[in-house]
Design brief:
About 5% of the residues have low confidence. Strands 2-1-3 form a 3-stranded antiparallel β-sheet. A hairpin with a 5-residue loop joins strand 1 and strand 2. By secondary structure, it is mostly helical. The protein contains 20 helices and 3 strands. It folds into 4 domains: about 160 residues, Alpha Horseshoe (Serine Threonine Protein Phosphatase 5, Tetratricopeptide repeat), CATH 1.25.40.10; about 120 residues, Serine Threonine Protein Phosphatase 5, Tetratricopeptide repeat; about 60 residues, no CATH class; about 35 residues, no CATH class. The structure holds zinc ion (ZN).
Length: about 400
């Protein structure tokens, strides 16, 4: 309740100011007493959780003062707006809506004041998930210079939620014009989402959009991966390799995500030696379990299990890793003679495997949200490109 009283201070201050202003003109005492009485009654209703009665009283009180022209329209408007916001902040959005709608409909306020009321009304609708109604209000506000930026940002939130990616791209482009950024991750991700939502086989159009993504965010790994997918569909493996290897420069945290596609491309070209060279280069640049495992697999295919096993043993001696340990035990099992020793290894392998399956493979670097698959937008904090593979983060 202390918090409530604190939030009500602006309203009290508005009344106090009003009282001060009026004192020279009228018999202040009577009005002051009346207002104070009504105000105290309203606060008491709030404190005793009779919020409906409180809202009715405040609205009635403000309406009456307005009719009697006893309060300046501006301070009254601000007081009502604050009251509405107070209710929304307390989660009582239906009451906030009633107040903000009354302000929006009132014939006594200026056009600018009504725009403010519309902005708060849109926030109320956002809070309760009435996105279409919020959208309509924000579309109106986009044409008003003072409200445009906030309205565009909120429209972008709406279109991301409703997955209307063409509209999201349009809004994000407008925002980028107002505030140019060197690395516009949000716009780049909107382009990628748009490409993935397209029901067309038109690779040229998709490529053009993905190039735009790279233009606004040159480190957009997702755009490179999507471009490589288009290349692979067209069996243009050299170009796919170029796009996939670009990930190492753009953001090495994601290198594990492209290794299987990269290996496939090199295999198609019969150039697995070049894949090995790439992995060695990547290994020198980043510490990533997926790179070590891919290298071990390649060694196994080329030089046999013993070579792979030695490689993993070296890795494990440098830094323990559950993923690498799991693969290492597999090699040990393959080598072991039948008996209790081998049975124990099989049991250990199974237990470690279960542990890997149960634990999340990805984590949001912003809010800590953990998940089993890679998402480009965190479902918890809604940030873009903050979910990273744990195989990369463990080394950071
Ligand atoms: Zn997050």
């Amino acid at each position: 309740m202390l918090e409530l009283l604190f939030l009500l201070l602006p309203i009290a201050a508005a009344y106090g100011w009003y009282m001060g202003q009026r004192s020279a003109k009228r018999d202040q005492e009577d009005i002051s007493n009346k207002l104070s009485r009504d105000y105290v009654t309203g606060v008491n209703f709030l404190l005793s959780n009779q919020t409906d009665k409180a809202v009715d009283l405040f609205l009635h009180m403000l309406q009456k003062q307005e009719n009697e022209n006893e309060i300046e329209s501006r301070s009254q408007f601000e007081a009502e707006l604050t009251l509405g916001n107070l209710f929304r902040s307390r989660g009582e959005v239906d009451r906030a809506l009633r107040i903000h709608q009354a302000l929006d409909r009132s014939p006594n306020y200026t056009f600018e004041q009504k725009l403010l009321a519309k902005q708060q009304l849109a926030r109320d609708f956002m809070t309760i998930g009435f996105l279409d109604r919020a959208e309509n209000l924000y579309i109106l506000l986009v044409d008003e210079p003072e409200f445009a930026e906030n309205a565009l940002q909120q429209l972008l939130v709406i279109y991301q939620k409703t997955k209307e990616w063409k509209k999201a791209v349009n809004i994000a482009e407008k925002l980028a014009k107002i505030y140019p950024q060197e690395n516009n991750i949000e716009l780049a991700q909107c382009y990628c989402e748009y490409v993935q939502s397209l029901n067309t086989e038109n690779a040229i159009e998709k490529r053009q959009i993905l190039q735009k993504a790279l233009l606004v965010s040159s480190r957009c790994v997702r755009a490179s991966i999507l471009l490589a997918e288009l290349d692979m569909e067209e069996e243009n493996y050299p170009q796919a390799i170029k796009n996939l290897e670009e990930v190492l420069r753009q953001n090495p945290d994601y290198i594990g995500e492209v290794l299987s596609s990269l290996k496939l491309c090199y295999k198609k070209l019969d150039q697995l030696d070049n894949f090995e060279l790439f992995l060695i280069r990547a290994e020198q640049q980043v510490k990533n379990d997926e790179v070590d495992l891919a290298l071990a697999k390649l060694l196994e295919e080329k030089d046999g299990k013993a070579a792979a096993q030695t490689k993993l043993y070296q890795q494990l001696s440098k830094k323990p890793s559950t993923l690498i340990f799991h693969r290492f035990i597999q090699y040990q099992i393959d080598d072991a003679e039948e008996g209790r020793g081998k049975d124990s290894l099989i049991l250990l392998h199974k237990m470690v495997g279960e542990r890997i399956k149960q634990s999340a493979a990805y984590r949001c670097s912003n809010c800590g949200y953990q998940i089993h698959k890679l998402l480009w937008n965190c479902p918890s904090c809604r940030h873009w490109e903050t979910i990273k593979p744990l195989s990369a983060q463990e080394h950071n």
